[in-house]
Amino acid sequence: MLALLVSFLIAVYLLGPDLISRWAADLVVFRKTRVQSHAEEVARSIIGAVVPLIVAFLWARWSGALGRTGTHYDLETVFSSLQSDNFFQAHRPQFFTSLRAFFWMNFVILWRLYALVVLISIARIVIVLSYNRIWRRLHKRWMRTLLATIVPRISEWDLLFSDMLLPEGSFRIMADVLTKTGGLYQGAIQDRMLNNDGSLQSITLANPRRFERAEFHKAKAEDIETVSDEFWFNIPGNLFIVMSSDIANLNLRYIRRKPLSFQPSDEEREVLTRLLDRLREGK
């Protein structure tokens, strides 16, 4: 019975907060995961829960809620009764009284612990969604390092297919895909699928087109004047899926959807006007 209680306490105090933080991270990014042993899972859960657990305990103690619900004697009675049948038989009434106090002592700590975990998870979600804007406003290296430690370990593919590290503005991601069979494809990234470990499974290209490499090399060999754009042909359909196992090389290009507008100053307008006047006089 004691082992069952200890396992339950480990689950609610350590594994529960870790599961909530993982679930919250999966809402906004695809995490890079790896297979861990049971000891590594418990160790990581302890590290992730120790700070909010300490804060929750001090919060409950400072508010007086922990002292009102039970005492150190209640804890000793519950654990001693679960460990020894003789002690339980001799202190049966005290055990059930202390068990109720033990329940409420854990309750006043747990609801504060999970409230802190939820608040921290919400803060991490906001930081991830605003990572681009926050990162550009932090100019010191240690600040950016601290910001990187706050966000979850993100899959490199999820990072490449997002705008987290791009300048401010809306971008379209274009891809040039060279397959292992020699096919060269081009299109805008419409979607991507990742495996459970964060590796790339497939990409979906919108408005795809294929480059006819054989015809291009044939024209070059015959010394025919060629333009590479003439050898790109649209693929029937709006979407084209390429599996990662077929990809030999992948190039990504980030194209701003709205080109930057150039607004010259009054001095620049005056200089441009003088240059145009001189060009006209030269004619």
From TrEMBL:
The chain crosses the membrane at residues 6-30, 42-62, 109-131. It comes from the Bacteria. Keywords: Membrane, Transmembrane, Transmembrane helix. This is Uncharacterized protein. It comes from Edaphobacter modestus.
